[in-house]
TrEMBL record, chain A:
Free-text comment on the cofactor: Binds 1 lipoyl cofactor covalently.
Keyword Cell division in annotation: no
HAMAP family given in the database record: GcvH (MF_00272)
Domain of life of the native organism: Archaea
Name this protein carries in UniProt: Probable glycine cleavage system H protein
Subunit structure of this chain's protein: The glycine cleavage system is composed of four proteins: P, T, L and H.
CDD domains reported for this sequence: GCS_H
Keyword entries, A-Z: Lipoyl
One BP annotation, GO: protein lipoylation
UniProtKB/TrEMBL annotation, chain B:
GO molecular function, one term: transaminase activity
Primary gene name: gcvT
PANTHER family linked: AMINOMETHYLTRANSFERASE, AMINOMETHYLTRANSFERASE, MITOCHONDRIAL
One GO CC annotation: glycine cleavage complex
Keyword Ribosomal protein set for record: no
Domain Aminomethyltransferase C-terminal: 280-358
Domain GCVT N-terminal: 7-260
GO biological process: glycine decarboxylation via glycine cleavage system
This protein's record includes keyword Transferase: yes
Pfam families in the record: GCV_T, GCV_T_C
Lineage of source species: Archaea, Methanobacteriati, Methanobacteriota, Stenosarchaea group, Halobacteria
Species of provenance: Halapricum hydrolyticum
Protein name (Swiss-Prot/TrEMBL): Probable aminomethyltransferase
Length: 128, 359
């Protein structure tokens, strides 16, 4: 089985990804994570305006068979949540790096990004 | 590494994901739980259920032994018939639920304990044999048999392609049949609510029969969502002598308890039957967003705890979050509005009778 691991993103070994644009970080779960979970049926997301810390279990993704916490790769204030997931949680399976994103946060400390895994390092983690 | 069924390599070759279940390494998913589930509801799927135990009882007191062991009336079985039953301890607490088959020869009884309970149930038979001084031979034949379930509305038609038998079996009947060249026992039983069969296949012929019946393979994930939509019990989860000690009346299978027979636990259950159980297993359906899961508390709208969830999922058929929960009888009427506490958050839910779907 080979997984999609976009080069331009940063990752946690717990299978979250981050895409940064001008101080805003979009967060989701990786292709590996969605495949492991199977059919996603429910998501619980933080409210806009909520502050999250790096390492917080800030969201929950549930598939038919499993409940999984999602950990924050970076700290910041939540500026957007993907409300489309409330009606179509399967977007996480269909497009984990695109329409299946979870939240956007305003980065509290851009230096945190340096501590995240590169695509290459994340791919090595999965293989090991 | 757990026990493996004779079909393990087939499943691995088909890229199934595996899980430990009752000490067996079992396929949980081949493609996706949702698609496997839908295939069974709409057409047909096959399941490897070789992790289920097979205990054979023969001898002049075989019937008497089964009558002591199980809550149902085994004397009502003609050759080639089967019945659902509970196995209880002296206090009437469920140790197991099972199907008892009287094989077509009329001499052999075979019952099917759940995964991992085969030796404990064989041992229980030996205990009953000595306790009541019975003449019976007890064989744990779990590894002699593979078991393949073919389930779904198209199961009878598709199954006729691999057997000479004419499929006229009624529910809970069993007969011998040649399936893809193997001498099998075919029973019209299942765990999905659909038409179909459970086929006992000699271990050596397992892969031949599995391959011959060329339909969607399904894993334990779909097996769980299918049985949950029907409200069927899962041993070790909806009842368990250690973690969820329940009588058959609490578990909603009072229909399988015949108090005019002499099974172990009968006297205790007579008392429960007279007074009624204090709690009952009910369906719950969440009204708020969320998914009920094993262990979550059930409360009144005011927050008083009245029970807990034992099984839950998002129903693939209904697209609704459903579960099974034990609730105090005072709050167990259908349509009672309760709360299921999901991660400290009370979610509005409705008590329902099962099955959740029309079957």
């Amino acid at each position: 089985m080979s997984f999609d691991i976009p080069e331009e993103l940063r990752y946690l070994d717990s299978h979250e990804w981050v895409r940064t644009t001008d101080g805003t970080a979009r967060i989701g779960i990786s292709d590996v994570a969605q495949d492991e979970l199977g059919d996603v049926v429910f998501v619980e997301l933080p409210d806009e305006g909520e502050e999250i810390d790096a390492g917080d279990d800030f969201a929950v993704v549930e598939s038919i068979k499993a409940v999984s916490d999602v950990y924050a790769p970076v700290a910041g204030e939540v500026t957007a949540v993907n409300e489309a997931l409330f009606d179509q949680p399967e977007l996480i399976n269909e497009d984990p790096y695109g329409d299946g994103w979870l939240v956007e946060v305003e980065l509290a400390d851009p230096d945190e990004l340096a501590s995240l895994l590169t695509a290459e390092a994340y791919a090595d983690e999965i293989d090991s | 590494m757990g026990r493996q069924t004779p079909l393990y390599q087939r499943h691995a070759d088909r890229d199934a994901s595996f899980t430990d279940f009752g000490g067996w390494e079992m396929p949980v998913e081949f493609d996706s739980i949702r698609s496997e589930h839908e295939r069974v509801r709409e057409s047909v799927g096959k399941f490897d259920v070789s992790h289920m135990g097979q205990i054979e009882v023969t001898g002049s007191d075989a019937e008497r032994l089964l009558q002591r062991l199980t809550t149902s009336d085994v004397t009502a079985l003609d050759p080639g018939e089967a019945q659902y039953a509970a196995i209880t301890d002296e206090e009437g607490i469920m140790l197991e639920d099972t199907v008892v088959y009287r094989l077509p020869d009329g001499e052999t009884y075979l019952f099917v304990p759940n995964a991992g309970n085969d030796e404990a149930m064989a041992e229980r038979c030996r205990w009953i044999r000595s306790e009541f001084d019975l003449d019976a031979e007890i064989t744990n034949a779990t590894t002699d048999w593979a078991m393949i379930a073919a389930q779904g509305p198209d199961a009878p038609e598709r199954f006729e392609e691999v057997t000479d038998a004419r499929y006229t079996l009624d529910r809970f009947e069993i007969e011998r049949a040649d399936v893809a060249g193997a001498d099998c026992l075919v029973a019209a039983t299942g765990y999905t609510g659909e038409d179909g069969f459970e086929i006992l296949v000699p271990e050596a012929a397992a892969t031949t029969v599995w391959d011959a019946f060329d339909v969607q393979p399904c894993g334990l994930g779909a097996r769980d969502t299918l049985r949950l939509e029907m409200g069927y019990l899962l041993s070790g989860q909806d009842f368990d002598p250690e973690t969820e000690p329940r009588t058959p009346y609490e578990a909603g299978i009072g229909f399988a308890v015949k108090l005019d027979t002499e099974f172990v636990g009968r006297d205790a259950l007579e008392g429960v039957a007279a007074e009624g159980p204090e709690s009952k297993l009910r369906g719950v359906q969440l009204i708020d967003r969320g998914v009920p899961r094993h262990g979550q508390p059930v409360t009144t709208p005011g927050g008083k705890e009245i029970g807990h969830v034992t099984s839950g999922t998002m129903s693939p058929t209904l697209g609704e979050p459903i579960g099974l929960a034990y609730v105090d009888v005072a709050h167990a009427d259908p349509d009672t509005v309760v709360r299921v506490v999901v991660r400290d958050e009370p979610k509005k839910a409705r008590i329902r009778t099962t099955p959740f779907i029309d079957r």
